[in-house]
Write a structure and sequence with these properties.
Layout: H1 15-25, H2 44-49, H3 53-65, H4 73-87, H5 90-102, H6 107-112, H7 124-137, H8 145-154, H9 157-180, H10 205-210
Helix pairs in contact: 4-5, 4-7, 4-9, 5-9, 7-8, 7-9
Length: about 210
């Protein structure tokens, strides 16, 4: 379950939210109860974001942004998918792998996203986009000049700005999905103490490892 309450259809007054409820779930469904979008996702991103119509409207305007940008859509999706992977969002990574596929990306590229550094299936520009994405997500915007130089050699300044904005936008969405446990990021914490089996004596590990 997501960490915030889902807003049922009966409580929605905003026409924009109702439009997406109808379009993604169907006009006869209450998506806060009857989960499942036409894209085979749970859909609780929409019902949780409906908590704030202003946030909802701002977010969906952001989704429509890249319909009009000049950046190659495959490069855009490469950055978005890698951002999802780097941020650890199953939802963002999964959705944008599918989007890459719909745009004609070969399966070998999609499969190589987690280990792009040692894959030879990406072009020099694609490798620069992936390295740039890692700099944005993993290193908080710390990007080597050499990586940026490859982007400058292949893309216009507006296209680099578009790539930067869209990639960091989806870093934000990946972070929010994890924090609020939305969609495929509704998962328990993976890092937890492993219990010692019953009957095993608890000892000071430092003493055991020192050989004393």
């Amino acid at each position: 379950m997501p960490r915030l309450r889902e807003v049922p259809r009966a409580e929605v007054a905003d026409e924009k939210i109702l439009f997406f409820y109808d379009r993604l779930f169907g006009p006869d469904k209450d998506p806060a109860v009857d989960h499942g979008t036409i894209h085979a996702t749970p859909g609780d991103w929409w019902t949780v974001f409906a908590q704030s119509p202003d946030v909802f409207r701002h977010a969906v305007r952001g989704f429509s942004l890249y319909r009009n940008v000049t950046l190659d859509p495959l490069l855009r999706e490469l950055g978005q998918a890698r951002a999802g992977y780097a941020r650890g969002s199953q939802f963002v990574f999964s959705q944008h792998c599918k989007q890459m596929r719909s745009l004609g990306a070969p399966e070998e590229k999609i499969a190589a996203l987690p280990h792009w550094q040692v894959s030879d299936c990406f072009s020099a520009l694609e490798r620069a986009v992936l390295a740039y994405t890692d700099g944005l997500v993993y290193d908080g915007g710390r990007v080597p000049d050499e990586v940026f130089a490859v982007l400058k050699a292949h893309l216009t300044d507006p296209e680099i700005l578009q790539l930067t904005y869209i990639t960091t936008l989806y870093d934000m969405h990946a972070t929010m999905c994890r924090a609020l446990r939305l969609e495929f990021d509704d998962r328990p914490e993976l890092i937890a103490e492993v219990e010692i089996p019953a009957g095993v004596e608890v000892r000071d590990l430092s003493a055991d490892l020192s050989g004393e």
